[in-house]
């Protein structure tokens, strides 16, 4: 077997804070955050072979097949910065992708731990629907947790704050539906492997981060 690496799969509903926590883990553990959104944007922008293939599906209004997403992730995991492992944020999204990740990581000891950041649906809806974005500079606020000094006005440049379509309640509820249909089965998948660790996502960002680091340290080989 090749040298052991640390692969971490972050799980949780949309709005659970996976992206925020993955960035913090990247700094504290020295492992890269692997976001499927970032990978897609890179391949589309640079018009790679896989990017062009994905674009053809998107131009037709079709979902990009798992096979294409898996190939993009596999290429990303072969980059030098992943030599010690990676923090998976947004991948796998379903059981097909989870099996593919097992195959990719098997030579290096496989996935070490799958922390589940738990936040209930109503809190998720509050978190996402409360977001407001500046039309000019893109700064993001929250009407409850990080309000601007003046309602509807950006602190930075005075731009108008608006609610993105993705942040409207109907869209958020649909995202939750898709999550429960496609992604929630991963909870059972990683539980059966003994890799699932539950984290209270309603704690402060720092407390969630500390809890994540604790379960990751526990899972790492001596």
Automatic annotation (TrEMBL):
GO terms for cellular component: cytoplasm. Coiled coil: none annotated. One of its GO terms (molecular function) is zinc ion binding. Pathway: Purine metabolism; AMP biosynthesis via salvage pathway; AMP from ADP: step 1/1. Its EC number is 2.7.4.3. It is found in: Cytoplasm. It comes from the Bacteria. Catalyzes the reversible transfer of the terminal phosphate group between ATP and AMP. Plays an important role in cellular energy homeostasis and in adenine nucleotide metabolism. This is Adenylate kinase.
């Amino acid at each position: 077997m090749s040298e052991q690496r640390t692969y971490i799969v972050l799980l949780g509903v949309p709005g659970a804070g996976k992206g925020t926590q993955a960035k913090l883990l990247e700094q504290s553990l020295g492992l890269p955050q692997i976001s499927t959104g970032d990978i897609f944007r890179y391949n589309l922008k640079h018009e790679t072979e896989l990017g062009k293939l994905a674009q053809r599906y998107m131009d037709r209004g079709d979902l990009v097949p798992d096979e294409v997403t898996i190939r993009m992730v596999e290429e990303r995991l072969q980059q030098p910065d992943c030599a010690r492992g990676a923090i998976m944020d947004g991948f796998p999204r379903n059981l097909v992708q989870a099996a593919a990740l097992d195959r990719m990581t098997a030579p290096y000891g496989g996935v070490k731990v799958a922390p589940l950041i738990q936040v209930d649906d109503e809190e998720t809806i509050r978190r996402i629907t409360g977001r407001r974005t500046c039309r000019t500079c893109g700064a993001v606020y929250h009407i409850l947790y990080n309000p601007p000094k003046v309602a509807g006005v950006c602190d930075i440049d005075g731009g108008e704050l608006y609610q993105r379509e993705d942040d409207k309640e109907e869209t958020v509820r649909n995202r939750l539906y898709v999550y429960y249909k496609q992604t929630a089965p991963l909870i059972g998948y990683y539980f059966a492997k003994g890799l699932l660790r539950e984290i209270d996502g309603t704690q402060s960002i720092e407390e969630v981060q500390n809890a994540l680091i604790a379960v990751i340290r526990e899972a790492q080989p001596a």
